[in-house]
Amino acid sequence: MNLLYEESGDMKIATVQSASGAGDAESWQATSLSGKKIKLKAKEVWLRFEKPEAQAVMDEATTLSKDIDLQLLWDCAPDEEFGLVDVAGEYFGAQATISQQTALAIALQGAPVFFRRKGRGRFQRAPQEQLQAGLAALDRKQKELQQQSAWQQQLVMGIFPETLKSSAQQLLFSPDKNTSAYKALLAACNETGESPAQLMIRCGAIDSPLAYHQGMFLKAHFPQGAEHSSSIGVDAATYAAAVAELPLAQVNAFSIDDAGTTEIDDALSVTELADGGHRVGIHIAAPGLAITKDDSLDQLARSRMSTVYFPGDKITMLPNSVIEQFSLDAGAPRPALSIYVDIDSEGIANRDSLQMRAEMVPMAANLRLEDIEHLVSEESLQDESASYPYRTELVILWKAAKHLHASRQEKRIANGLRAEQLGLIDPNALARDFHFQIKNINGVEHVEITPRQRGSILDTIVAEWMIFCNSASGQLLADHGLPGLFRTQKGWGPLRTRMQTTPGPHEGLGLDCYAWCTSPLRRYSDLVNQWQLIALAKHGVTAKMVAPFPPRDAALMGIAADFESCYQTYGEYQDRMEKYWCLRWLIQDGESKNVFVRHLKEGMSRLELVPLHLPIPELASHPRMTRAQVALADVDLLQLSAAARVLEIEAKVELPEVSAEEDGSPD
To answer: Which residue of 39, 60, 288, 379 is surrounded by the most CB atoms within 10 Å?
Structure first.
């Protein structure tokens, strides 16, 4: 005996192997057409029949069901509830076969617009108005499917549908997966074997892999766009009020930055003292004088947390109008939060002489590394005939920087770390900084990647004095019981370096206390700390009563967590964009290049000429810093990958190790 039953909305037939019970309690052990062993109860069975054979019935019924006129069936059906066998007699005639009855079951079960299911093998036709609404919906669905199919074919052919061009960005970066457009895109990708990004680039909907990477980042972190609203800023009256009572500092300050720096956060000054020593001033741009907690600029800065840097461009934390007001540009006094420390004739700093005050600082010069770095050396600093700006001041700052560095190394060693090398690193060493310059040549973007060795005298002067400023600022906050955003590093593991609201040691830098404060124009953590320091500079021991963030402030703890996450994400994007441009550099003069790499660990290597890391499994068993010549090909700018084939492995050459301690630089 064969049984017709419904499973998961589909009509199926099984052949009985054994039976038990009787009447409504009867049940069967049966085998489905697919060979599955099942158990059926009487209440689950629609029809029972001996012949024809089960598979023949299902094959014939499936074919017949496609020709059933559902509108005619609806017209034939009574208004009241009816059974399958009853309506089969109306539609096929009194001698309806098992195959016809099964076909009708398939049709009724698959036509919820026409008929409502009321129980096992029983239905009721839908009311006229519901039927019309359902048919209209089916018509719309059919038209959508036709449109989807047409879009799919256009996409496969490399034509992006005109009606979808306005929503191309949304379709790629934040699609509604229920829309016909997305389904057409996905179907086209399945047909061509491409990813959505590859297909849309081929169709011209997305300009390039670069536009894809940028679009993904902007959609995730700047969904409203990266441009600043022109309505947000510091108006002239607010700025004037913020700086009205600031004294004029009796210094001539200068900054040291590369040519691309537009947010000049910090500057230095040196003033001679009567006893033969000098007073060094570290001057930090002070937007915190005019931006107040929870105002519109604070909300903007808090939403961004930092300036985003990447080759060829950046997304600033603050509007350009605010940067122009507070950047320490040369030519006029600028509002700053200054920390002063006295050093003796040997260059040793007297930390008991620390002073901090908000003031207007005369900015005498903005020195650019590209212009003078090659001129500054140990020899030229001792040569009084050497002519470059601020040589005398640089001599004093360099002498003191060496003492600051040595003091930190003593603590690093006490912490179980090795001392860091001072000054220029061996030019053969792998660790270098790189400058990316994107040029438009005849309408084509061309990248130049220039290595710059770390550890020059100017590098060290800036780094050591900014580290000192961050350390002194953190200590001032700690000594007065003020919370802040402290950068700590202790122990080992992935979370050893973190941001917290209470002071703690930074073992990597060899400091008891460290709080970022030297970049308030481009890091929100520094702006927060500046507010706390301004309160301290203005109110001294009563600062805790007026500081924007009191001790154990939950909001400050939330800012610490948000900043950590955001800062890491921005850093990952910068790394991603640098990798993109390194790959562009590889192919801009040809499809492949033979280059030299250094093996780092576990098969990961880095090119010598550019900061590109690639997996090269062939080098996995070789010692660290093994040098090899490889051929690179199959560069994929979407996946940011390239295939590498080892051509030659050189004999191992010993190179100086370079410490990669996190936060080795203040910025």
So the answer is: 288
- % of residues, the chain, pLDDT over 70: 95
Give the Cα separation of 48 and 251 in Å (integer). 103
Q: Are 599 and 622 in contact (CB under 8 A)?
A: yes
Pull the structure tokens for residue 256: 């040291």
CB 445 within 8 A of CB 439: yes
Average pLDDT of the chain, as a whole number: 89
Query: Helices 554-587 and 296-304 sit at what angle, rounded to 10 degrees?
Result: 50
Does the predicted TM-score (pTM) go above 0.90? no
> For residues 26 and 42, is the Cβ–Cβ distance under 8 A?
yes
Q: What is the pLDDT of residue 651?
A: 67
Residue 522 · residue 306 · CB < 8 Å? yes
* Angle at which helices 391-414 and 457-479 cross, to 10°: 60
With a cut of 80, say whether residue 553 has pLDDT above it.
yes
Among candidates 645, 641, 618, which has minimal Cα distance to 631? 645
C-alpha 446: how far from chain center: 25
DSSP string, 481-523: T----EEEE-SSSTTSEEEESS---BTTTTBS--B--S-TTTB
DSSP string for residues in 99-153: HHHHHHHHHHHT-TTTEEEEETTEEEEPPHHHHHHHHHHHHHHHHHHHHHHHHHH
Closest CA to 581 of 610, 614, 616, 615: 610
Task: Decide the pairing of beta strands 593-601 and 497-500.
Answer: unpaired
Res. 655: pLDDT tops 60: no
Nearest-5° angle of CA 594, CA 596, CA 599? 130
Confidence class of residue 591 from pLDDT cuts 50, 70 and 90? low
The amino acid that residue 666 corresponds to is P
Select from 660, 662, 658 the least CA-distant residue to 488.
662
